[in-house]
Amino acid sequence: MIVKDKRFKVYLEASTIQQRLKVLGQQITQDYQGKNVVMVGILNGAFMFLSDLCRYIDLPIELSFAKYKSYQGTESTGKVAELIGFDDSIRGKDVVIVEDIVDTGNTIKKLTEDIVRKEPASVKIAALLLKPSVYKGSIPIDYLGLEIENRFVVGYGLDYDGFGRNLKDLYVLDE
Hints:
Layout (H helix, E strand, L loop, with lengths): L1 E2 L2 E7 L1 H18 L5 E7 L3 H9 L5 E12 L2 E10 L9 E9 L3 H11 L5 E9 L12 E5 L5 E2 L15 E4 L2
Parallel strand pairs: 3-4, 3-6, 6-7, 7-8
Antiparallel strand pairs: 1-2, 2-10, 4-5, 9-10
Helix pairs in contact: 1-2
């Protein structure tokens, strides 16, 4: 598979991703019975993960979105920029942050700090992917799809310079 100027190969098939999302959806359903839950998707990468995950959650949920950026091309910039913040009231509600991938943890840290200032009842993290070898954070990932190696991935919402988000499978850079 070629995305822009780079070659990628299949890393995780869509069926594997969906099997894991079903388990996460069941966990969230069990954990939030009788609660007022807001799922906050981090754009742009988490849109596909959030959409599919919600289909496996058997609860009334609210959806909200925020947009943060920390990547340029295939590398993390080390800086987290808030592009679109929160406009919905989350005070007193149980918030689940839905992130596509956690590597260094800088984005999750900034996002969690921003949400906590809005006084929610609780905050938990759902991440499709975690790169444990580079995760420097102390914030627990409460609902984790899969751990992966520290390699650049594209597809299933994740991109390379804006391209490849629409791929149903997850691809890794073919080096």
